[in-house]
């Protein structure tokens, strides 16, 4: 089995490592020659390439150079850019992935931010996805390209994991705030649980051509989360502040259901963010 990972960053690299551990040959693609050189040194058994996923010629060339690809994952990032960066990374990346690797099992890491609900309701894959930001609409456009080709879309909640938890880092640094009355729901997923979900989606026949939410079992309100962290770390509760309605992917207030994914037999190692904090503490916020 040959696995191609387009976007070997925090999530993509972890998926590549998991598949390599399962015996797969791995090709990992980064956006720059510098990052490719660093990854090749760290993972000498992988094929590592630098390529622009938004460039159809580069993707076609890559396809011509590689052995047949069994699984291809698009896990790129916009680099914190705006709408044009989203269009290049996600929409053009999806189009070029489909064109160059149509014979592979195609996976795309999208986002639960496409659900724009603000009423605190539960959302599943059948719920309306009507983002009010152009960035969110571009994520949906990328989804449509993958689904039309029989690919699988993983709508991923807020990613955290080893060395990466913005929420915990801000809390420990005294930069966190409770928005409004603190009742807004937080939906997250641990990196390792996302990786196991992607493996399940890549190998389960029922996943082809479908959308799956990837989130932990138990969303938390901001107040519940910060109250637990305050008690655990013996820190004060963050102060109140007005909600930030100007987020790039929009301000939402919803609970993301993962029942369709659980129906494939997937179970998260960390059912809730607080479980991971209890197990790993401040290391979740420590940047490597």
Can you walk me through this structure?
The structure is a single chain. With 288 residues, this protein is of the alpha/beta class. The protein has a domain at 2-161 and 188-216 and 257-268: NAD(P)-binding Rossmann-like Domain (Rossmann fold), CATH 3.40.50.720. 38% of the residues lie in helices and 18% in strands. A seven-stranded parallel beta sheet has the order 3-2-1-4-5-7-12, with helices on both faces. A two-stranded parallel sheet has the order 6-15. A two-stranded parallel ribbon has the order 8-11. Helix 2 links the parallel strand 2 (25-30) and strand 3 (47-50). Helix 1 (10-21) packs across helix 7 and helix 4 runs parallel beside helix 5. The protein starts with a strand and ends in an 8-residue tail after the last helix. The model has no long low-confidence stretch (mean pLDDT 95).
Spatial separation of the terminal alpha carbons:
31 Å
Placed side by side, the strands forming the largest sheet appear as 3-2-1-4-5-7-12
CATH topology of the domain at 2-161 and 188-216 and 257-268: Rossmann fold
CATH architecture of the domain at 2-161 and 188-216 and 257-268: 3-Layer(aba) Sandwich
- How much of the polypeptide forms β-strand, as a percent range? 15-25%
User: Which series of helices and strands comes N to C?
Assistant: EHEHEHEHEEHEEHEEEHEEHEEHH
Shape: globular
Overall pLDDT level: 95
Rg from alpha-carbon coordinates: 19 Å
Percent helix among the residues? 25-40%
Highest-level CATH class of the domain at 2-161 and 188-216 and 257-268: Alpha Beta
Largest sheet: 7 strands, parallel
Structural class: alpha/beta
């Amino acid at each position: 089995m040959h696995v191609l990972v387009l976007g070997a960053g925090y999530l993509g690299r972890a998926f590549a490592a998991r598949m390599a551990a399962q015996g797969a040959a791995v090709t990992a693609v980064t956006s720059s020659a510098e990052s490719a050189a660093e990854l090749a040194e760290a993972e000498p058994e992988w094929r590592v390439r630098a390529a622009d996923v938004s460039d159809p010629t580069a993707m076609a060339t890559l396809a011509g150079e590689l052995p047949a690809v069994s699984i291809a994952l698009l896990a790129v990032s916009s680099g914190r850019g705006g709408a044009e960066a989203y269009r290049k990374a996600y929409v053009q990346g999806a189009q070029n992935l489909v064109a160059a690797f149509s014979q592979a099992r195609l996976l795309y890491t999208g986002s639960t931010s496409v659900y724009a609900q603000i009423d605190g309701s539960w959302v599943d894959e059948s719920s309306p996805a009507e983002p009010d930001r152009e960035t969110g609409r571009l994520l949906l456009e990328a989804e449509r390209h993958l689904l039309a080709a029989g690919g699988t879309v993983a709508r991923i909640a807020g990613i955290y994991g080893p060395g990466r938890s913005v929420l915990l880092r801000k809390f420990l640094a005294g930069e966190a705030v409770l928005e409004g009355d603190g009742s807004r729901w937080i939906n997250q997923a641990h990196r390792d649980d996302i990786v196991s979900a992607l493996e399940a989606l890549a190998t389960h026949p029922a996943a082809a051509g479908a959308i799956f939410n990837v989130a932990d079992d138990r969303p938390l309100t901001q107040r519940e989360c910060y109250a637990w962290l305050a008690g655990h770390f013996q820190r004060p509760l963050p102060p109140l502040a007005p909600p930030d309605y100007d987020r790039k992917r929009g301000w939402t207030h919803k609970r993301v259901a993962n029942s369709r994914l659980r129906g494939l037999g997937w179970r998260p190692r960390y059912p809730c963010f607080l479980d991971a904090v209890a197990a790993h503490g401040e290391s979740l916020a420590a940047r490597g």
